[in-house]
């Protein structure tokens, strides 16, 4: 067993009834004794058995332990052991995902069920981080069928294998292809009589899309157009785009292409009444492919350095399960053309995140004041199109909904004729492989996209203004002072 690797020298518990007692010969101490015990016994690892402790309490406990340069790990809860979700020997490193974010609000069953239960549902981009979690959440709500649509063969194989293992009795079907192929999408919709589509297929890596502008716009914007058009032609009930906070005043093609996708759905909704088109906008999800958390883990395991683009860069974070649950609930409130925005909580400074991950590994940060530290954190400069501070809202016209973490924003949009012209020009510039014309077209559309001469120093100086605008809106909504739908 893994437990044989450890010599238990003390138990820590703040229950006064347990202090100065023993468990199988090992003394129980209060948390005030931690520093002395670490020094006396040269402790290298602390195991946390916190059960159902809230994230806020768990984070507070870990924060107190981080200063001791010990490795912090966690053991399964009794509930996990009883129900077979973990094994007694399963001791693992505590993850930053265990600490960040907030304690989740229980989902509303009526909202989860509305677009999913007993429905035929398709998820595009089903093999991605968000797409695969949407599939897990959807299968938990007993759909009639679930169709996995994915252009990456290995990702499709991987998610299908996992879902069949955990949901062996569900009607699960896999389709390999791209959403740019409207004939294929239409065929799938017709053959399965699909009622709800969650469109998560997208290129999302900012620097990669910046280097491949035409393909980024084709996949993210025109892929949405082809998929939505097929959905409308075959009377799909609900079509939901997974969007991003990078679509707000974008400074990169990835964000701009997602804002184009939003504009296309907004335009389509002005001529379409049968299919409810909506989009759900949120920030980074913890642990997704390409995110900083797995990258930092890899860099720490390799001895460093950890690379951060800018010391003051911040991002919003949410756990993948919470984001997926909120997307499904938001789709149930759609009236057509809705821009839903998820309340992401407070933004997190990435440099602080890196420091915390180093300390949680039982290591110290190497710096000018601590030259003998273990892991250096190095600033490498902002990447092309990268913003210091992401925003969730553009318009001041934002309202609450019946769910406390879901808002409905009113954003600039185009008429259907203007949308049609935009799509035609996007298609032509992509056929011509003309990235310059694409940039100009995107900048002239109501995307708020800017890419030339971005002054990041100025942007940094405006941090307080930007953050205060978002914070003020969110505070009003959280306090219930805004009108709700």
UniProtKB/TrEMBL annotation:
<dbReference type="Pfam" id="PF02719">
    <property type="entry name" value="Polysacc_synt_2"/>
</dbReference>
<dbReference type="InterPro" id="IPR051203">
    <property type="entry name" value="Polysaccharide_Synthase-Rel"/>
</dbReference>
<dbReference type="InterPro" id="IPR003869">
    <property type="entry name" value="Polysac_CapD-like"/>
</dbReference>
<protein>
    <recommendedName>
        <fullName>Polysaccharide biosynthesis protein CapD-like domain-containing protein</fullName>
    </recommendedName>
</protein>
<dbReference type="InterPro" id="IPR029063">
    <property type="entry name" value="SAM-dependent_MTases_sf"/>
</dbReference>
<dbReference type="InterPro" id="IPR036291">
    <property type="entry name" value="NAD(P)-bd_dom_sf"/>
</dbReference>
<comment type="similarity">
    <text>Belongs to the polysaccharide synthase family.</text>
</comment>
<feature type="domain" description="Polysaccharide biosynthesis protein CapD-like">
    <location>
        <begin position="121"/>
        <end position="409"/>
    </location>
</feature>
């Amino acid at each position: 067993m893994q437990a044989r690797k450890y010599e238990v020298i003390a138990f820590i518990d703040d229950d006064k009834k347990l202090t100065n007692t023993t468990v199988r010969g090992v003394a129980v101490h209060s948390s005030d004794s931690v520093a002395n015990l670490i020094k006396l016994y040269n402790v290298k690892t602390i195991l946390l058995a916190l059960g159902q402790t809230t994230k806020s309490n768990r984070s507070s406990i870990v924060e107190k332990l981080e200063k001791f340069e010990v490795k912090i790990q966690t053991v399964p809860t009794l509930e996990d052991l009883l129900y077979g979700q973990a094994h007694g020997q399963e001791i693992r490193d505590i993850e930053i995902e265990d600490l960040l974010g907030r304690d989740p609000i229980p989902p509303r069953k009526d909202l989860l069920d509305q677009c999913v239960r007993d429905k035929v549902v398709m998820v595009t981009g089903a093999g991605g981080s968000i797409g695969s979690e949407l599939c897990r959440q959807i299968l938990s709500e007993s759909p009639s069928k679930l169709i996995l649509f994915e252009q990456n063969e290995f990702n499709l194989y991987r998610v299908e294998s996992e879902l069949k293992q955990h949901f062996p009795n569900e009607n699960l079907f896999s389709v390999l292809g791209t959403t740019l192929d409207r004939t294929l999408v239409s065929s799938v919709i017709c053959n399965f009589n699909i009622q709800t589509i969650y469109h998560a297929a997208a290129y999302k890596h900012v620097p990669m899309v910046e280097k491949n502008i035409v393909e980024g716009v084709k996949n993210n914007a025109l892929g949405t157009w082809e998929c939505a058009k097929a959905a409308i032609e075959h009377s799909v009930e609900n079509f939901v785009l997974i969007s991003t906070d990078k679509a707000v005043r974008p400074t990169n093609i990835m964000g701009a292409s997602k804002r184009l996708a939003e504009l296309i759905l907004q335009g389509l909704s002005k001529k379409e009444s049968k299919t409810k088109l909506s989009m759900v906008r949120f920030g980074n999800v913890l642990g997704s492919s390409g995110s900083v958390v797995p990258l930092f883990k890899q860099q720490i395991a390799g001895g460093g350095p950890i690379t951060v683009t800018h010391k003051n860069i911040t991002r919003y974070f949410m756990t993948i399960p919470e984001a997926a649950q909120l997307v499904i609930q938001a789709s149930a409130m759609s009236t057509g053309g809705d821009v839903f925005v998820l309340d992401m909580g407070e933004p997190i400074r990435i440099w602080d995140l890196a420091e915390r991950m180093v300390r949680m590994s039982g290591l110290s940060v190497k710096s000018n004041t601590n030259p003998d530290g273990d892991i250096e954190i190095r600033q490498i400069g902002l990447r092309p199109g990268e913003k210091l501070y992401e925003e969730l809202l553009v318009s001041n016209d934002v309202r609450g909904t019946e769910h406390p973490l879901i808002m409905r924003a009113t954003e600039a949009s185009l008429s259907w004729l203007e949308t049609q012209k935009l799509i035609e020009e996007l298609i032509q510039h992509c056929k011509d492989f003309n990235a310059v014309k694409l940039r100009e077209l995107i900048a002239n559309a109501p995307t708020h996209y800017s890419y030339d001469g971005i002054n990041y120093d100025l942007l940094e100086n405006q941090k307080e203004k930007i953050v205060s605008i978002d914070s003020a809106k969110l505070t009003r909504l959280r306090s219930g002072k805004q009108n709700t739908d």
